[in-house]
Amino acid sequence: MPWSPVGGSRTDADPAPEGPRSSVPRHRTAALALILTVAFMVVLDFSIVNVALASIERELHAGTAAAQWVITAYAITFGGLLVLGGRIGDLFGRRRMFTLGLVLFSLASLSGGLATSIGVLIAARAVQGVGAALVAPAALSLITTSTPVGHARNRALGYYGATASIGFVAGLVFGGVLVQFVDWRGVLWVNVPIGLIAAALAPVLIADDSRGVRTSLDVGGALLVTGAIAALVYGVSEGPELGWTSATALGALAMALVLGAGFVYVEQRHPTPLVRLGMLRRRRLRSANVAMVLLGAWSAGELLTVTLFFQLVLHYSALTTGLAMAPQGIMGFLGASRGASIVRHVGVRSLMIASAGAAAMGLFLLGVSFASHEYALYVPGFMLVGFGTAASAFGATVAATHGVEDSEQGLAGGLINMSRQVGAAVGVALSAAIIGTGASSGGSIGPDRASLFFVASFGVLAAVMAARGIGARLAPAARTASEPHESDQTGSRAAVANAAVAKPSPVVGGVDVMGRSHPRPAVGCGTSPARVGASALCASGS
After folding, report:
1. Which phi and psi (to 5°) does residue 511 adopt?
2. Cβ atoms within 10 A of the Cβ of 495, count?
């Protein structure tokens, strides 16, 4: 019987599942390691393909606009399907969607690596995004539904965030190595063995959590929310390239607004909505997702600006650029991995205020230091940004998933991932516009520095959002099932009390995801360095 990754949806005081004492931790650790490996692969792919764009453009004889669609196609399907992917996992089984997404992602990676035309590669990247949209929320919800509320869950989420931090920078470094010494196709093929092996191991290490009941999917709501998010991502991605007043950009943004309004209308009247709108009335969940949008914006805006500055102004190679950003990844690993310990002492709100403030300070320092071409001056800024961004992402994830029913954890995971993707698209669009406009207007500071100063403001806004919207005493330490959390000023007192109690593991066929027997069965749950402004940066030499 497979074990869940690191426990069940229970409190720390619950007894361990029956079975050999020594085998339980080993199996749980292997399951968690599998989920973290997959998370690493997805984040790695997000950054590794950016490095290969120039080689792809050259070898496949594609124009700059066509090559950019290698990134945009993935961003649209990934961002657009995250909410749906998370909800499908809730309804039909997270392990099932996790495995299906891995197979889809791996086969699409294989097809993309074999592509002989830019059209085939773009199609493969779109399918990759579909697979990632199934995998990402399933991976997060497998962790949150199988770990006890409190320090154990926070620690597991910390590992998850730390893996993502290392994976992002590793993608920049490995991408540079593969492009420089092998071939651009290697950045796609590296996913194939990892994904297929993980898909084969998932049924062995992760217990089946399918609900075992017939469930209808809100197809209308699914189509509307997917179309709205995809149109939004497309509109903000194409705005800097085509112009914000172009018919394409304005049409996409208008479509996003209309489809979004239609989605709300349908969900208010559907008997089994895709997204229960009452869930979005929780101030803590809303604040966490808004903070994640801001985080995605400053993170992607910084990546765009720093990448262009290093490669066009300092003339670093792709590999050297990745290595130069390594301090940010290392500090990100520390920020996420130590997040659980920090939260145990000071709570989520204090962590998010301090970490978002640290990221803002780091971005400001980078903006100041970019007046010089001395790399050593950049390191303090990178370290603050890395630690602050990862710790903020950890805190927002804890806040967004805390107190959510197991039956909606996949949806919560899809929402928080979607928020970051939408923020990333917005951040790239705004930074690209600032870089292009700043260079052409000949301002007193370089366009790269202006972009960094601007995205630093998102860190300040995220700190304010955390201070106003996250409960003062949200999960400062592990609690028992009988000890309710303090109100976070959302919902009724009864709802707050219910949210504080760890839910029992879902029971399917008399056995829960922990492998424990029950007498009766029951049912429980990119962005890329934009070409806009690149020549302006190069000309400015700021």
Report:
1. -135, 130
2. 15
Query: How remote is the C-alpha of 196 from its chain's centroid?
Result: 22
Which of 183, 235, 197, 190 has the alpha carbon at shortest distance from 75? 235
Q: Are 162 and 333 in contact (CB under 8 A)?
A: yes
DSSP 446-471: -HHHHHHHHHHHHHHHHHHHHHHHS-
> CA-CA distance, 236 to 230, in Å (whole number)?
10
Distance CA 173, CA 161 (A): 19
Under 8 Å between Cβ of 143 and 35: yes
How far is the C-alpha of 308 from the C-alpha of 315, rounded, in Å? 9
Residue 225 CA to residue 87 CA, distance in Å, equals 12
Distance CA 498, CA 156 (A): 23
b/e sequence 102-133, b meaning 16+ C-beta within 10 Å: bbbbbbbbbbbbebeebeebbbbbbbbbbbbb
Residue at token pair 């109690």 = 501
8-state DSSP, 484: P
pLDDT per residue, tens digit, the chain (542 aa), is 444 433 333 333 333 333 333 223 346 788 888 998 998 888 888 778 877 877 888 888 877 667 778 887 888 888 888 888 888 888 888 899 999 999 999 999 999 999 999 999 999 999 999 999 999 888 888 888 777 777 777 788 888 888 877 787 788 788 878 877 888 898 899 899 999 999 999 988 887 777 655 566 778 888 888 888 888 888 887 777 778 788 888 999 999 999 999 988 988 888 878 777 777 778 888 888 899 999 989 988 898 888 888 888 888 887 888 888 889 988 988 888 887 788 888 888 899 999 999 999 999 999 999 999 999 999 999 999 999 998 998 888 888 888 777 777 777 888 888 888 888 888 887 887 788 765 554 555 678 899 999 999 999 999 998 888 776 555 444 443 333 333 333 333 333 333 333 333 333 333 333 333 333 333 333 444 444 444 334 434 44
- Residue 253 phi/psi, 5° resolution? -70, -40
If residue 102 lies in a helix (H) or strand (E), which one and from where to where?
helix 94-114
φ, ψ of residue 512 in degrees (nearest 5): -85, 180
- For residue 518, CA distances in Å to 142, 214, 456, 507 come to 21, 21, 52, 8
3-state helix, strand, coil in the chain (%, to 5): 75, 0, 25
pTM of the model: 0.73
Give Dmax (Cα) for the chain.
74
The angle that helices 118-144 and 409-441 make with each other, rounded to 10 degrees, is 130
What single-letter amino acid sits at 8? G
Q: Which two tokens stand for residue 353?
A: 């205020």
Cα-to-chain-centroid distance, residue 394 = 11
